[in-house]
Amino acid sequence: MQNQEIQSSVFPGPGQVPQEYAMPYLAQKEYLINGEIKFWQGNVIRVKSPVCLQQDGSTKQQELGSFPELTESEAQEALVAAQNAYDKGRGAWPTMKVRERIACMEKFVEQMKAVRTEVVNLLMWEIGKNLDDSRKEFDRTVEYILDTIAAVKELDRKGSRLELESGIYGQIKRGPLGVVFCMGPYNYPLNETFATLIPALIMGNTTILKPAKYGVLLLQPLLHAFKESFPAGVVNVLYGRGSVLADFLMRSGQVDVLAFIGSTKVANMLKKAHPKPNRLRAVLGLEAKNPAIVMADCDIDLAVSECVTGSLSYNGQRCTALKILFVHESLHDKFIEKFTAAVAKTKVGMPWENAQITPLPEPEKPAYLNSLVNDAIEKGAQLIVPHQKDDEGTMVYPKVLLWVNKDMRVYHEEQFGPVIPVVKFSEMEEAIDYLTYSPYGQQVSLFSDNYETLAELIDPMVNQVCRVNINSQCQ
Question: What kind and span of H or E run contains 113?
Fold first, then answer.
């Protein structure tokens, strides 16, 4: 397409950002080690927002602030603090009564609620997540903490009872494992990071938290809540480059549990860096490429609606997003007509406008997506750009690729962006083979109104994936 000269910019100009969502520059100096908020005087890493602003006739990414570029020395200090707080399982935190740990967690939740507005704004500006989804991420995280507290209370009640097994009375309890190193993903830098951190804490482990590559500043408003809610050394927050901090911590051999959500490549590197990988406990959430299988006997309007939402919510930057669509040949053309029309109606804009398509936080992602598209076109795919607009900087408009086959990179690689590959199939075995030979196994969505068709598929599908969704998007 060559519309760049005639299309107006999607990004705001001076004075067009609503005052309540304006973002002041945040030069963060603080980090948390051993119950003390320390102030960094060394090198910093600058943070640019995916949101661009029009200034002086050009469009530039907004600089949001900076955070400390800590070194191995600070990582060692955090590791010692966590080890001392755990003290081989004899520390105050791992031996504390469950109700007392819960009280600390409840205190943290109350202080967390007080900074909701700041965290939500930073979610919008740092990773481009729209306003409603940013609020949902914060609120879901609070709800998750409360649900975790409830689950621990139930575990504690069960563990207090004696059970008789093979003539032996005993108690079964869950205990902490040691020092847990937590790293979450940029697409849910609060919710999924806390999904690793909160269970580790409440069970009595001590922790070292390193924020994701993007979505770093949003933890700054929570540092004081961590400091005031938990004993010294129980929560330590490091800022800097993963290649320095994570590598050092894993090479030390003193990390007992790696809690990581991200790519397989990084997870494998971290595990291999540990001198005793068989001793290391790993709690991992890795990538996925969830398919939708749209069958001939489906409700086509429902399938279109769910596939649009499933593939494009937050630009498709979700592990649970639909990342490839298998559409039966008998309704392929009709489905594509309706699907592209629905994609064209998705709102493109800024996060505070509650747009479904927003700027992408990874600087290299637009070029990567473009390389997938070009590779597919060179190998016979047809490109449809329903919005009929060219990409602009960090804003990538949704693209639909037809006639996708297994020779194309987009058939195999997780695009993690608003590019939707569609495979036309005639035999169900084609879609089943995709799941069977895929390196991923998270979820699948099946679209059919025929109970017999679904019944035949569900049993083999549950042997391939963790969750089968019937007539709904993966979520």
Answer: helix 98-113
Which among 135, 169, 473, 415 is positioned nearest to 292, based on CA atoms? Answer: 473
Question: Three-state SS across 270-291?
Answer: HHHHCCCCCCCEEEEECCCCEE
Tracing tokens 């927002």 back to the chain, one arrives at: 49
- Spatial distance between the Cα atoms of 225 and 127, rounded to a whole number of angstroms: 23
State how far the Cα of 398 lies from the Cα of 411, in Å rounded to an integer: 17
Does position 259 have pLDDT exceeding 80, yes or no? yes
Q: How far apart are CA 197 and CA 38, in angstroms?
A: 21
- Which residue bears the tokens 């320095």? 244
Instruction: Return the exposure string of 47-84: e unless at least 16 CB atoms fall within 10 Å of the residue's CB, then b.
Output: bbbbbbbeeeeebebbebbbbbbbbbebbebbbebbbe
Rg value, the chain, Cα: 24
220 closest CA partner among 62, 84, 352, 40: 40
Six token digits for residue 83: 């080890």
Place of tokens 């993007």: 214
Strand order in the sheet with 44-55: 26-27, 58-68, 44-55
Helix (H) or strand (E) holding 75: helix 72-86
Residue range 227-252: mean pLDDT, rounded:
97
Query: 3-state class of 170 per DSSP?
Result: strand
**Which class for 42: exposed (0-12), middle (13-18), buried (19 or more C-beta within 10 A)?**
exposed
Q: What is the pLDDT of residue 470?
A: 96
CA distances from 286 to 62, 277, 318, 411 (A): 30, 18, 11, 18
pLDDT digits (tens, 9 = 90+) for 172-192: 778 899 999 999 999 999 999
What gap in Å lies between CA 60 and CA 149, rounded to an integer? 44
In angstroms, the CA 156 to CA 173 distance is: 8
> 3-state DSSP helix/strand/coil percent for the chain, to nearest 5?
40, 20, 35
**Structure token pair of residue 140:** 């879901």
Can you tell me which residue has the tokens 């469950």? Answer: 98
Q: 206-210 and 281-285: which strand pairing?
A: unpaired
pLDDT of 282-335, one tens digit each?
999 988 999 999 999 999 999 999 999 999 999 999 999 999 999 999 999 999
- Nearest CA to 396 out of 314, 334, 329 is that of 314
Give residue 376's identity as a one-letter amino acid code: A
Query: φ and ψ at 362, to 5 degrees?
Result: -80, 120
Residue 152 near residue 89 (C-beta atoms within 8 A): no
